[in-house]
Design a protein that fits this description.
By secondary structure, the chain is mainly α. It is built from two helices and no strands. The chain is 90% helix and 0% strand.
Length: 59
């Protein structure tokens, strides 16, 4: 479960990076930060779901 929260913090940092790179008009950096935010966001939500919600409905 700790891994999910750590990855969620990384996702928030990636979203902050997207905003910062858009302000400086660095589209390549914004693109990489956006892709990272999507990937880390998916894995954080999936990990937290698997650890917190799935045990209530599994088996």
């Amino acid at each position: 479960m700790e891994l999910g929260f750590i990855i969620l913090v990384v996702t928030v940092l990636c979203v902050i990076a997207v905003v910062r790179e858009f302000k400086s008009q660095n589209m390549l950096g914004a693109g990489f930060a956006a892709i990272s935010a999507l990937v880390f966001g998916f894995f954080s939500i999936a990990t937290l779901y698997w650890e917190l919600i799935h045990p209530f409905f599994g088996d």
